[in-house]
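A student in our group prepared the protein record below, which I am reviewing. Here is the record exactly as it was handed to me.
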Amino acid sequence: MASNEKIRNVGPKSAAWLRQVGVRTIDDLRATGVIETFMKVKRAGFRPSLNLLYAMQGALDDCHWADLSDEVKASLVLAAESAETANPIKNRWDKAAARSAARDGAAPGESGGEEPGRDDGDGFGDGDSGVREITGTSRDFD
């Protein structure tokens, strides 16, 4: 396969994800590695399935991803899980909770000294849900 050809087994959506993380050719994939590329895609905010992981390995092995042995697939999954355990990926809710806790001076998950059961805001501790109340009658919105 020439280095400028599209990566085998990868469809248009996955190819766009790969381009966004800097993997455009099979040589880029080889240099970065399957696991690191998969983790870059996840860290970029995309939600790849294991099929992308298998597809990239199949591209390196020059075979269809479904032809990979169960042992190879299992080792890829184990390696991806290990990589994520070593450097967890926080979702947007985890990040928002951490930012809010930092503003409130409490660790994420702590109440910050507030009364138990009291909820004055949106659950992030800043007291501002970001929603503005609309007042009026139904006639005002026709």
